[in-house]
Amino acid sequence: MRLLIASDGSDASQHALERLLGLCRDWGGDHAIHLVNVQQPIAHADAFGLTAGMDGPMLDKLGRNELLRAEQHLSKHGTDYTSVVRIGPTAHEIADYAEEIGADMIVLGTKGRSNFANVLVGSVAQRLPSLTKRAVLLIPVGE
To answer: For residue 54, what is the domain's CATH number?
Structure first.
């Protein structure tokens, strides 16, 4: 099975990775693990009033740093994986990457925000299922 797990370096995404590895052992067989980290461009106004954003190499470096914990965990367990950093709207980039690699399932760790917080900041977990036909597995922190 080809499994895509979104990792942002948080405890929630690390917990989801650990649970996914347990599920893979339970399921048996071979599984291809793909890690994805999504960075959103940050626009700002410079001294001349022009809008500029963080460039791709800087965002890629931030994403690589956020993937490091997950990569180390997979390596420690002898699990092969592929990892990428994408730049753009998080839910869209995860859905697009899942399509590109032909993922059978997308796995996300959830932080358990309240509905009010989700209204304010939005939720990748809420948006993603409407953007993909792939199975989406949400793993809450307390699970």
So the answer is: 3.40.50.620
pLDDT band at 41, cuts 50/70/90? confident
Tokens representing residue 30 in the block: 């071979």
Strands (E), 81-129: 81-87, 105-110
Strand order in the sheet with 81-87: 81-87, 32-39, 2-6, 105-110, 135-140
Contact 110, 138 (CB under 8 A): yes
User: Tokens representing 101?
Assistant: 């690699």
Find the radius of gyration of the CA atoms of the chain. 16
Number of H helices, E strands in the chain: 5, 7
pLDDT band at residue 7 using 50, 70 and 90 as cut-offs:
very high
Query: What is the mean predicted confidence (pLDDT) over 56-82?
Result: 92
Domain of 43 in residue numbering reads as 2-140
pLDDT for 16 equals 93
Residues 6+ apart with CB under 8 A from 66: 7, 8, 9, 37
